[in-house]
């Protein structure tokens, strides 16, 4: 089962004795800061956790699997995550 935003809010509320609405506002603000930073092309690095990075993908040749028609797919930006060494070690314990 995946950890959801709602579960994170509940855990923060319990851990730091914050009301659920305050915890929700905190999580929402954190995510909004991360989204706007990534949208501007900057990386987000969380020490001990990892780095969210924006990579540029070049235009490439592709095909429509339904019609076998070849086409050029536009270049785009994608977000990738590289975990920190400490997190990688902890996951692999």
Describe this entry's structure for a reader.
- The chain has 93 residues and is an alpha+beta fold.
- The protein has two domains: 40 residues; 52 residues, Irregular (HU Protein, Chain A).
- Helix content is 41%, strand content 29%.
- The chain is built from three helices and five strands, in the order H-H-E-E-E-E-E-H.
- The protein has a three-stranded antiparallel β-sheet. Strands 3-4 form a two-stranded antiparallel sheet.
- The longest helix is centred in the N-terminal third of the chain and has 20 residues.
Summarize the model shown:
It contains three helices and five strands; from the N terminus they run H-H-E-E-E-E-E-H. The chain is α+β, with helices and mostly antiparallel strands. The chain has two domains: 40 residues; 52 residues, IHF-like DNA-binding proteins (HU Protein, Chain A).
List its traits:
93 residues; three-stranded antiparallel β-sheet; alpha+beta
- Strand % is 25-35%
Mean of all residue-level pLDDT scores: 94
Structural class: alpha+beta
Number of domains: 2
What profile does the largest beta sheet have?
3 strands, antiparallel
Strands ordered across the widest β-sheet = 1-2-5
Tally of DSSP β-strands: 5
Name given to the CATH architecture of the largest domain: Irregular
Oligomer: single chain
Quick one: CATH class of the largest domain?
Few Secondary Structures
Task: Report the C-alpha radius of gyration, rounded.
Answer: 19 Å
Per the principal axes of the C-alpha atoms, what is the gross shape?
elongated
CATH topology of the largest domain: HU Protein, Chain A
With helices defined by DSSP (H or I, 4 residues minimum), what is the helix count?
3
- Show unreliable segments: none
First-last Cα distance: 19 Å
Portion of residues in helices?
40-55%
Query: So, the CATH homologous superfamily of the largest domain?
Result: IHF-like DNA-binding proteins
* Element-level helix/strand string: HHEEEEEH
């Amino acid at each position: 089962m995946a950890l959801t935003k709602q579960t994170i809010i509940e855990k923060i509320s319990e851990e730091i004795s914050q009301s659920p609405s305050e915890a929700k506002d905190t999580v929402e603000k954190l995510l909004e800061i991360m989204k706007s930073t990534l949208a501007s092309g900057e990386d987000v690095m969380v020490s001990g956790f990892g780095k969210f990075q924006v990579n540029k993908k070049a235009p490439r040749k592709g095909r429509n699997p339904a019609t076998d028609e070849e086409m050029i797919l536009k270049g785009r930006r994608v977000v990738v995550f590289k975990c920190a060494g400490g997190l990688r070690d902890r996951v692999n314990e």
